[in-house]
Amino acid sequence: MKFFVLLIIAYLLGSIPSGVWIGKLFFKKDLRQFGSGNTGTTNTFRVLGKKAGIAVLLMDILKGTFATCLPLLFTLDVNPLVFGVAAVLGHTFPIFANFKGGKAVATSAGMILAYNPAFFVYSALIFIIMLYITSMVSLSSMISAVLITLSTIILPFAIPAILPHFDWLLTSIALALTIFIFIRHKDNIERIKDGTESRVPFGLGARKKNKTND
Questions:
Q1: Whether pLDDT at 25 is above 70
Q2: d(C-alpha 97, C-alpha 29), whole Å
């Protein structure tokens, strides 16, 4: 019974629509009606600005972190990743926002943070490097997801200080999330092909675009 109750709590935590609530409360805007219509961090940055974007990013990460910590807090002998996945599902299909949520990236990061902080730092560095190279959040998210999934297999043997042992559940979840992230970014993939995908104003990709425009 405790397992199912905590699983529901994890889903409800993930379902908190940070971007929607912050937009409505402080900016009188519904994120779903602006920009890409997505309720995640990237669209929040574009529509509501840097401060709101950072707040949503932190809240979405912490949703995954707190949900993943639930079995530790309530002494339940279950792999914490199970509850992290419930939070990710809540984030992408939130009951509090008509089941239309984000793209799973930030809350997945929060799940990794609770599971293994060293692996979280490693994963964050991969994303930052990819973002610097591509200047596109969407492309960086997809490439990072692939590299992180591969890392769950390689690191236990190559750098056990980061991942001490191979966890088949971690790899399975990482693979499933990678596929899911690609599906959620299908519109972004089309824009990347067309050369119309939005870029952040820094990194090698942004420089190349500026040189082309010049």
A1: yes
A2: 14
